[in-house]
Amino acid sequence: MQIAQNSVVAFHYTLTNDAGEVLDSSEGREPLTYLHGAGNIIPGLEKELEGRAAGDKLNVKVDPSEGYGEVQDQLMQEVPRDAFQGVDNIEPGMQFQAQTQGGPLMVTVKKVEGDTVVVDGNHPLAGVHLNFDVEIASVREANAEEVEHGHVHGEGGVHH
Ligand code: ZN
């Protein structure tokens, strides 16, 4: 069957940036399973999978606008060193959960300058052009409960 609204799709993928570096891959793992049409995966990829079937292989290029968004400068912030109580060595690359007005946000330390820490609340893949090599493993129809919940149950999905 072809992928359409409310299909449960399992696919293998390798994600690279424009420099050819592998950012993520399902190799050696179970395929990624999602409910089609429910916004479970980034829009640019979901759109290209529409109408495909099990066994199809495709390469999908996704711009940041249809991926993890553009880099937003206002999500770069300077935070006093004191805000990280209990952490002895703050180094670039460390990730923390920050409490913001919009709820919890994962931030990454960009640099440490004396008593000031620069953190970045952008998604690590914001602003990145994404290249997906995809192989579709299986396609099935979602059941009523999955459609109602907006996600896949059972294998590769949510168990509850
Ligand atoms: Zn559920």
Automatic annotation (TrEMBL):
<comment type="function">
    <text>Also involved in hydrogenase metallocenter assembly, probably by participating in the nickel insertion step. This function in hydrogenase biosynthesis requires chaperone activity and the presence of the metal-binding domain, but not PPIase activity.</text>
</comment>
<protein>
    <recommendedName>
        <fullName>Peptidyl-prolyl cis-trans isomerase</fullName>
        <ecNumber>5.2.1.8</ecNumber>
    </recommendedName>
</protein>
<keyword id="KW-0413">Isomerase</keyword>
<dbReference type="Pfam" id="PF00254">
    <property type="entry name" value="FKBP_C"/>
</dbReference>
<dbReference type="InterPro" id="IPR001179">
    <property type="entry name" value="PPIase_FKBP_dom"/>
</dbReference>
<dbReference type="InterPro" id="IPR046357">
    <property type="entry name" value="PPIase_dom_sf"/>
</dbReference>
<keyword id="KW-0697">Rotamase</keyword>
<dbReference type="GO" id="GO:0016853">
    <property type="term" value="F:isomerase activity"/>
</dbReference>
<keyword id="KW-0963">Cytoplasm</keyword>
<feature type="domain" description="PPIase FKBP-type">
    <location>
        <begin position="6"/>
        <end position="83"/>
    </location>
</feature>
<keyword id="KW-0143">Chaperone</keyword>
<comment type="similarity">
    <text>Belongs to the FKBP-type PPIase family.</text>
</comment>
